[in-house]
């Protein structure tokens, strides 16, 4: 490309979109890349501050911003994504499913450390809906060297660093513990909360067993659900450190592999996660019964894409794991538990 004075631009081809901004009223494209400048266009261009223009002139080894955006999209975009038209050199990545956004954060950082290249995304593990914009990319200048694009390709190493993983609709068993509920001294209010939350993801609750504070009975209830084909077990009640709260011990004694008892998420410090083979068992603290958003809302979507979480995965939620208990909850469109 080369720069010329706008007054001399008639007949030349624009090599980039021209944007007009009217504060508080309008921001958009008035001339598109590839437009052949006409005599009547020149006063319009001058009125929006374009005394000089870049017009197309092919240079070996240099790539136009639109073609560069397509290149970056092709090397970074993975599963369940579609893309916007190129506008002002930028392409948006849009989810085609309801699912969990997966970003290779380390590779994304490396990519953005290359001069003249940018890629912006929503947070890793963000809950997305079909049609939601999850990322965007472009290059900073109007043209970029092929060498820098090749560097970006090497950095990613063939890995598609932006993916949306669709949720799986799982069969859920609920094990509710507590003498006060078992003996009908109080009405169970935990089961309906869990059923409501999992049903939003299309999951089926295959049953709820209410148990007294008896380790053997709780343990057998968990095993019974696994035998019935449950793919996720939610245990409610008995998750604190009181002497009668034996749910964590019962979960451990099923033979499940304990990942963590305790999480750096508030609300949700007394959360437990274990795996009985491939079946996750979640010990859900009482806060999930009355707080709108808790550790359960954070971890549940990851269980529904078969993430096999580790202690480190849970520990990483500490940075950002404090819910602000906003009067109007906007989760997941907030800072809570974003990693």
Describe the structure.
The protein has helices at 41-47, 65-76, 105-112, 146-156, 179-182, 190-199, 215-227, 247-252, 287-290, 295-303, 311-315; strands spanning 2-5, 18-22, 26-31, 52-55, 62-64, 81-83, 91-95, 99-103, 117-121, 127-128, 133-139, 143-145, 162-166, 171-177, 204-211, 232-236, 257-261, 272-276, 279-284. Helix 2 (65-76) runs parallel beside helix 4 (146-156). The chain has 3 domains: 2-55, Molybdopterin biosynthesis moea protein, domain 2 (Alpha-Beta Complex), CATH 3.90.105.10; 62-165, Pyrimidine nucleoside phosphorylase-like, C-terminal domain (Aldehyde Oxidoreductase, domain 3, Alpha-Beta Complex); 171-318, MoaB/Mog-like domain (Molybdenum Cofactor Biosythetic Enzyme, Chain A, 3-Layer(aba) Sandwich). The protein is an alpha+beta fold. It is elongated, with a radius of gyration of 27 Å. Strand 18 (272-276) and strand 19 form a beta hairpin. 26% of the residues lie in helices and 27% in strands. The model has no long low-confidence stretch (mean pLDDT 93). The chain has a 6-stranded mixed β-sheet with strand order 15-14-16-19-18-17, with helices on both faces.
Task: Write a brief structural summary.
This protein is of the alpha+beta class. It has 11 helices and 19 strands.
